[in-house]
User: What shape does this take?
Amino acid sequence: MKHTTSLVALVLAGAASLLTACSSSPDERIVAPAGGATPAGMSQGEYLARAGNCVACHSIPGGAPFSGGLKMAVPNVGFIYTTNITPDPETGIGNYTFEEFDRVMRTGKARDGHRLYPAMPYPSYAKVSVGDMRALYDYFMKEVQPVKQANIPEETSGLLSARWMLGIWNMLFLDDDPYETEDDQSAEWNRGAYLVEGLGHCGACHTPRGFLSHEKGLEADDSNFLAGASLDNWSASSLNGDINSGLGRWSTEEVTEFLKTGKNLHGTAFGPMVEVINSSSAHLSDSDLNAMAVFLKSLPAKVEKGAKPWEYSDSTTTQLMSLKFEQRGSQPYFEYCVSCHGYDGRGSGAKLLPPLAGNPVVLDPRPDSLINLVLNGSLRIVAQGHVEVYDMPLFHKLMTDQQIADAVTFIRNGWGNTPDKAREVTPAQVAAIRAATKPVDSDDVVVLRMK
Ligand code: HEC
Ligand code: HEC
Ligand code: HEC
Assistant: This one.
């Protein structure tokens, strides 16, 4: 793979030299689609830093806010660490002028001219308006505590520190113009699009990536935008109108509720989405969350065009109650899952337990999230100051690869659930995820401080 990438990039280098530099200066006249007032006690800049979830990557549990140090994998290259973005002049970004900050946030070109890997979601942040970028800058310069902490050097295999390729990458994939209002859409829709495509960088996880790790679509009109993607042994499912594995059966209010509280009648957040809820979306205003939901609900089905909507079937319930475990996986489901998720898979209406029947993550064609969650459990959701009480236990030690493969296959085929692809999960799939992941300490409550 390494060779493929560098070769491809070399070929592209020739093509790219024909292109003129495409970095345009942001137009000062473009303003952000207006949001409401920021919640009490928060400056506009702090609110925007919440919306961009800067803290999730630029802090580590136990570390000083925004002092960096999170290890991130760059495919085919190695590992890099997020940097100190406190205003310390020596080790942080204290010497950045506004213009330099604006440039690095939109194009990934740092103050000293080196290029950032798109692990920093600058292709999304490019959409931020100049006014909002200034408020963010003021927040980092004036409100964040400076911390003297040197950045950790990247761990890349010498030759392949691929930073030199990134200028070309930018020419191919980066549109660094701020968000432009779509006149034929409502103010609410535009505000939602601005947040989802821009600061929220939802596509960084939910949009599939192409052969050079670029997101295959950055905007509503792109056919792959938010179409669902594999992500570090999880699957970030479709956020389009896909009727089974997407948000097609959720109402606007239900999408808002999920972003605010991490759950609704259809499902509960887990895996990396918990960090999005805990440190970003749970802090946003109701009107902004509603705007994001309005925008998401306008996106048409992209994967399941014309698919038949899921319908509940009670044959699984009847079969389980008969205690004849003929169907593959019914036995481990009965042993390890039924006590909470029930015979009928419908969940508790009080949202303490999510349904497995008709749940989009169970209908997702990629089973990675299900395997990972059963193996490792999940961090606790913290919303509106409350730590979630009920938690999915981890079965890392209790169940074999075969049992987990069978139980996951069972829920993917139960109660009318039938994801189109890869219906049967194999023990090898479980073994691969087991080897690459670690169990979560279910008592871990991770809320990264910004102050
Ligand atoms: C998904 C993870 C992620 C998020 C979210 C994120 N960053 Fe980053 N950021 C990175 C990484 C990784 C780097 C370093 C990239 C490299 O070394 O190539 C970086 C680098 C930077 C730099 C360059 C600093 C320097 O040392 O010159 C700035 C400035 C920055 N980020 C600001 C922000 C702000 C402001 C936000 C929130 C609006 C944010 N980042 C959100 C991952 C992230
Ligand atoms: C002690 C109760 C309990 C048991 C036993 C249990 N779960 Fe869960 N499960 C939960 C809770 C609570 C959640 C919600 C996520 C969270 O809060 O961690 C959940 C979430 C899930 C989800 C994700 C649904 C969503 O939208 O969040 C799946 C899939 C799942 N469980 C499958 C299983 C399987 C398969 C088993 C058996 C191997 C199992 N669970 C056993 C309590 C349980
Ligand atoms: C760091 C990666 C990451 C980012 C960034 C992210 N998500 Fe997610 N999201 C996930 C994963 C993984 C899941 C699947 C687990 C789950 O259902 O909680 C998910 C699930 C969801 C779900 C539930 C889908 C379902 O069918 O159950 C919604 C809604 C959602 N995300 C919305 C968003 C929005 C809106 C944004 C941007 C503000 C966003 N996400 C940003 C990783 C991410």
User: Anything to note?
Assistant: Residues 2-16 form the longest helix (15 residues).
